[in-house]
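Encode chain A's predicted structure.
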Amino acid sequence: MQILNWNVLDEAAQERALMRPVSTNSALSKDVRAIIDTVRTGGDQAVLNCTRRFDGIAPAQLRVEAKTIERAWEALDQSTHVAMSRAADNIIRFHRTQKPQEIKVEVEPGLICQRLVRPFDCVGLYVPGGSAPLFSSLMMAALPAKLAGVRRIVVASSPDEYGQVAPVVLAAAKLCAIDEIYCMGGAQAIAAMGLGTDSVPRVDKIFGPGNQWVAEAKAQMAQMPGGPAIDLPAGPSEVMVLADDAANASYVAADLLSQAEHDPQAQVIMLTLSNKMAKCVEAEVQSQLETLPRSDIARRALQNARLIIVQGRAQMLEIANIYAPEHLILQCADPEALIAGVQNAGSVFVGPYTPESLGDYASGTNHVLPTAGAARAYSGLGLESFSKFITVQQASKRALQSLGPCVQALARREGLEAHARAISVRLDAR
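Encoded structure for chain A:
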């Protein structure tokens, strides 16, 4: 972990201090493009071949049988049943309040404008598997999708060491009333959902976090003519903690490590007001690492960690808004006073008793969030993410007579005479 003093760094060094450790490279883009092309021509068999190549094992068939999903829920221990159900209740409770309302306005006499809300017909949810099967990511996407009224929900998750979707992911699917699950991961899963195969339906929009291969595949699929939409740019996890001298160093260290254990490419940053706090947090991180099961992953991530000393809370917020973190934790005295100054962040965690883990699992907010600075322009997943909006307008003859000449004048100013004539042909009709 590096300890840096922001105000002795020149502009270039400050920029490097906030630089993410990973960026898409041309070789990765080329490899992902090749996988997508392979799935386009080879369909199901290509997905199975890619799965065997990249995961070392492949299922006998892509789709998971309904009885397997049922058994996974039944085999889950009671305490996990209770915990999952409580988390689901909170996610539903928070997201239900986000339901968008339809609009109908008479903007002028006889001219009615509306905005209609329509859920997507079919969406794909990507759930990372492997060493940390993120069943919580399934819940974060599936429950809002259900609330929004999406008709068909397709889940893809990579195989475990037995060539199966992790049972805990299947159990979460059962809880969310999802029964269409495919054992496939990586770029090939994104390609299958975006293009469609004999077994896997072509989806309208793809949701879910993943590694750089998944993120690149989502980006490429979204750029294809007629390709699926995607939720948001999502890469390796990241957290920024704002900690003054009132912060508890052990809490801060735990929050940094909770993101570092995700991925060797995850990034953790702390902004603090004193070298003393930076040293305390550094020592706490090293101490907690000793008993962390995923310490090898966390240690690699910590190579890109920064503990940055700044001057004052205003500068903390300035730097945080420049960085635009996925997760922003406020471990300061009177943390509520800082919220108004937060402009760019995926999700904010306020005070000593609000670890980022709450949002990851059970507070009710969504944990599918923009990374790599995308929080400057993107929001995290919400109910509206699963809907599209259609505008409608209807004018009476009198409304057209009133507004039509205005439209004609504007159209002719742009040199679009056919637009103007679409008005005049009606106004001149007897």
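Residues 2-22+236-364 form a domain with the Rossmann fold fold (CATH 3.40.50.1980).
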